[in-house]
Automatic annotation (TrEMBL):
InterPro entries membership: Ferritin-like_SF (IPR009078)
Pfam families the UniProt entry points to: Ferritin_2
Superkingdom of the source species: Bacteria
Name this protein carries in UniProt: Ferritin-like domain-containing protein
Amino acid sequence: MNIINFLDDFTTSSILEGKTSRRDIFGTLGTLGKKAAMAAVPLGLAAMPKKTYAQSMNTDPVGALQLALTLEYLEDEFYDLALQSGVLPSGRPETVYMQISKHEQAHVDFLIAGLEGAGVTPVSKPTFDFTVGGTFDPFNDNGVGQETAYAQLLALAQAFEDTGVRAYKGQAGNLLGSPFLTAALQIHSVEARHASEIRRLRGLKGWITGNERGAGMPDATQPVYNGEENVMQGGLDVTTLGSGAAFSMDASTEAYDEALSGDDAVAIASLFIVEE
C-alpha cells in the first residue's frame, strides 16, 4: 500500500464528520462515570468544546497525528527488531536501544488511545522493509557481519530520529487550537533526546550541523537533512547577531532545527514501507 494513499483517508476535513459525538464517546465507555471517562481519553478530545473542535478540524490535527503514528510505528518496530537481532554490542548501546524502544512503544500506545478516544480509527501499521529492498542489512540477516550491521543500525536510527524531530515540528501548526499540541511537543522533546543519544553513539555531535548527514550515512538519508542549513530565524540572519566562533555558520545552523513538511516526512517513511 502506498503510504501517501495510506494516509490520505485520514487527512481530509471529513474524517470526523458523522463520527462519534462527545455523548457517544461517553456512552461507549459503559458504566464509567463522566469524570472517569474524561481521564480515559488521553488527549482530552471528549471534552473539547464544539467551537474548538471545528477550529481544530480546519488545521487537521487528525492528519498530523496519523502521520506521527505512522512514524512511531516505524521506529517502534525498528528498535524492537534491533534488540532481537543480536547485532547490538552489550553495554551502553544495548541499554540506549532498550530505553528508546520503551519510549517508542509508549508513543504508539498514546497516539492510538488518543485517536480512539476521539472516535477516530487509528491508521493501521504498515509492513516495513528496513533493508529497503536489500540496500541495507541492519539486522545481519544476510550475513554482512556484526560490525557492518551495527553501523547500519546506528545510521538508520539517526535518520529515523532526526526525521521524527523535524516532522513533529512541521506539524505543530496543524495542532494549534487543539488538545494535541502539548502532547505532541512532549513527544517531540523526547525524540530530540533520542536523536542526540544516537548521534553520540556514532561519535558525532549531538546536533545537526548545516545539512550534513554525518560520516557513514547512506546517500538515501540526505532528504532528512535538506533545509537544515537555513540561518534565517524570525526574519533575522542569525550569523550576524554576534562575532567569533559562537556565531559561525556551523554554530548558527546547529542552534535551530528546521521543520520538515508532511509531504517530505511521508516521502522518507515511504522508503521503508512495503507496497501492497
